[in-house]
Design brief:
Structural class: alpha+beta
Distance between the termini: 22 Å
Number of helices: 9
Strand content: 15-25%
Order of helices and strands: HHEEEEEHEHEEEEEHEEEHEEHEHEEH
Shape: elongated
């Protein structure tokens, strides 16, 4: 059987700053092929958001088809590490390296949890682009699965969801995310002759003031309230005596399942064009909110966690977005993984004991899915 620590070290040592290609997928393929998995590696997309390498591994069986989804790309290491960020060294019972928590450790744990002989059908949906644009990663894998008629019954995403100790939290949903750009045109001119110019900053300030006063909702049983944040203002006017020709703002909205991305874009556009009829509003939806209602799947995961750790996990929808936003369209999707305290930080590390405990939890989930 695969050893979770050894595989996690090999994955970390395969430098795979997003988008990941090549060696890190070789490591994963070498671990899965001897266990009878059929490996489908492919490259999707073109610049600027591609190309992206992805891996789909499948093994047959009978009963519930469980998919595990994750990514092997990592964010840039940054400076200030105690050693090499891609060393995979163990010091003081901690495994260090970029991706140890997010999320090569969980990928290694799941592979190590797979029984050597087929039981239930299993799929691994692994992308090389979750930390980047995420345009040609999991979405391309979903298209590939549809083309091949692969349809899992349940999907477990190995994101680091634990907050204070392994097993204290799983994610049964996530908020949606949309970025919106507002451009207000004006007419450039001299500040001493304002009647010959049209200052775009004035209506943009009015637009943002109205937006700031919007309450989208007050949250609900599973989600916190949706919120709008102004994330950038840009005029680009270096001269103190010039009325600028245009002004821009950018918004980021994190929203719950009472909202939809396009409706939010339309609402912002209505506000903007009421104050500035020529305003241009564009939006990019990163993902819609989703919720997997508590039920047999979350209970199965809770049972496996409780059996290993003795604690009852909190069912949560907090945090940022993940690729679960795409996978939730396929089947019930839940996220559960390692402690998230050091993800994306310098000296990212996972306790070796947690890595092995997560392996046992994942093995328990596989066994319960086949029961």
């Amino acid at each position: 059987m695969t050893d979770a620590l050894s595989l996690a070290q090999a994955l970390i040592r395969a430098d795979s700053v997003t988008p990941a290609h090549g060696t890190v997928f070789d490591v994963l393929e070498d671990a899965l092929s001897p266990m009878g998995f059929a490996i489908d590696r492919f490259v999707a997309g073109e610049a600027p958001d591609g190309p992206v390498e992805n891996l789909l591994a499948t093994r047959g069986g009978r009963g519930t088809h469980l998919a595990f989804a994750g990514h092997v790309d990592v964010v840039p290491a940054g400076n200030g590490w105690q050693g090499s960020p891609f060393s995979g060294d163990v010091r003081d019972s901690l495994l260090f390296g970029r991706g140890a928590v997010d999320m090569k450790g969980a990928v290694a744990a799941f592979v190590a949890a797979i029984p050597p002989e087929p039981t239930i059908p299993l799929s691994l949906i692994i992308t090389g682009d979750e930390e980047g644009p995420a345009v040609h990663g999991t979405r391309a894998l979903i298209d590939r699965m549809a083309a091949r008629g692969i349809a899992p019954d349940l999907c477990l995403v190995g994101e680091p969801t634990s907050a204070h100790r392994l097993g204290d939290m799983m994610k049964i949903g996530r908020r949606g995310s949309v970025n919106i750009w507002i451009t207000v045109p004006g007419r450039q001119g001299h500040v001493a002759y304002p009647h010959l110019a049209d200052n775009p900053i004035t209506p943009l300030v009015a637009i943002l003031a109205e937006i700031e006063g919007i309450t989208l909702d007050t949250g609900n049983a599973w989600f916190q309230a949706s919120n709008i944040e102004i994330t950038d203002l840009h005029v680009g006017n270096p001269a103190h005596n010039v009325i600028p020709g245009s002004a821009q703002a950018r918004l980021s909205i994190r929203f719950n399942d009472e909202q939809r991305g396009q409706a939010l874009i339309d609402r912002i556009a209505e506000v903007a064009q009421r104050h500035a009829p020529a305003a241009q509003v564009t939006g990019r939806i990163s993902g819609e909110a989703f919720l997997t209602q508590p039920g047999p799947f979350s209970a199965m995961i809770s049972d496996a966690i409780r059996a290993e750790t003795g604690i009852e996990p909190e069912l949560s929808t907090t945090g940022g977005t993940s690729d679960a936003r795409f996978l939730s369209k396929l089947c019930p999707t839940v996220e559960f993984g390692l402690l998230n305290a050091t993800m994306h930080k310098v000296d990212e590390a996972v306790a070796v004991d947690d890595l092995y405990a997560l392996t046992r939890i994942y093995a328990g989930i596989i066994a319960r899915a086949g029961a």
